[in-house]
Design goal:
The protein is mainly β. The chain contains 1 helix and 10 strands; from the N terminus they run H-E-E-E-E-E-E-E-E-E-E. 14% of the residues lie in helices and 41% in strands. A hairpin with a 5-residue loop joins strand 9 and strand 10.
Length: 201
């Protein structure tokens, strides 16, 4: 009689152990499978803390701090495309050009140029009108009134015809200038004049 109880206790203990093992195995089956090292992006559900993670693909906005120095968008170099107006070889332009740091003329322009720093007339360019600038580089043809407060450079193929005022002048061999020409002194007045000057002579 006692032997049967011992056998029953042993068999129930074995059944309990196997039930516990089966329960542990079923609990392991419920959990998520381990992540594969090279799984495709987005194939696994994001974790609970994914919302606070840094995501570099989202652009960030930068706020200006009050009292800090502001970055000026107007502080650009003369060679910057935002400050330069280039007239193409096949373009004809007429009118008034203002607030242009550098004007590059490859085509034909009949205009008044004010509030500019530099005018550059290329060998294929033609400018007719008036220009009041700090520096002028003429490799093509200029007709009209030209005031270069700092430096006027006439390259070997350049031709200037009209009223010219300059702070300093450089005329390469082959460059031509004709008309009323005078240098500017410190007060901005014309000091001496000459006409019909040719850089080739």
């Amino acid at each position: 009689m006692f032997g049967k109880n011992k056998d029953n206790d042993a068999s129930s203990a074995a059944e309990n152990a196997s039930a516990n093992a089966a329960e542990k195995q079923s609990n392991n089956d419920i959990s998520a499978p381990p992540l594969k090292p090279f799984s495709k992006k987005g194939s696994h559900a994001p974790g609970k803390n994914a919302g606070g993670a840094f995501r570099p693909e989202i652009p960030r906005r930068f706020m200006e701090i009050p009292g800090s120095p502001k970055h000026s968008k107007h502080m650009l170099s003369l060679d910057d495309e935002a400050n330069r107006l280039t007239i193409g070889r096949n373009i004809c332009l007429s009118g008034e050009i203002t607030a242009c740091e550098k004007l590059v003329v490859n085509g034909r322009v009949e205009a008044t140029l004010t509030d500019a720093h530099t005018i550059e007339v290329s060998p294929s360019g033609y400018f007719k009108g008036s220009a009041d600038v700090m520096e002028a580089e003429i490799s093509g043809k200029f007709e009209g009134t030209l005031v270069a407060k700092d430096l006027l450079t006439i390259h070997k193929e350049g031709k200037v015809d009209g009223s010219v005022r300059y702070g300093r002048i450089v005329i390469e061999a082959g460059g031509e200038i004709s008309g009323d020409m005078a240098s500017l002194d410190d007060s901005g007045d014309a000091s001496d004049s000459a006409s019909g000057t040719d850089g080739s002579s």
